[in-house]
Amino acid sequence: MKFLIAILIAYFLGSIPSGFILGKIFKGIDIRQYGSKNIGATNVIRVVGVIPGIISFIFDFFKGFFAVQIGRWLLESSTNIFSVSILNIVNKVEDPKIFQIMIIIIGISVMLGHIFPIFLKFKGGKGVATGAGAFINIVPIPVVYALISFVIILIIFRYVSLASMIAVITFFVTELIKNIPKFDEIPFLILTVFIMILIIFRHKENIKRLKSGKEKKLW
What pTM was estimated for this model as a whole? Predict the structure, then answer.
């Protein structure tokens, strides 16, 4: 039961649309009608301003982090919640891989909340900042390398979309290298593959604009 509660908390926390709220507070606008029409921090910077954009990024990052942390607290609060009765798949979560899978599902839930927020008719952002916050709690080393690659690519090319996609590829590659040769974190490796595919898919329009030379640079 607590596992299901953690998933719901993560989803609803992820659904809080900081970019949309900041657009209303600072300029009284629906940010979905301006710029790239995205509620993410990049569009907030372009349409509303740098400070609101930074606030949006920080909020989205930490809602991802705390969604996972709340899930950890719930899952670790008693031994009873480690009994999984749904379909009788497992009996106990003492197996670290089962716990890994639970935490991964919570992390994905907060990302899906951001991408498909119930408060905005399931049309949200791309999930990069929220995913970074969630997964720095789960697999910190790959996320750190991903953030480093993000900053480097952003400084060199000034495209947030390109930096985001390179970062998520770095995220996967780093976790892959970590797993060699024993592959003792298979759930986490599968997670990085899923996140990589999801983020790149969410950037499909950006990829088209990059190819045609129409993608806007951050500065």
Answer: 0.83
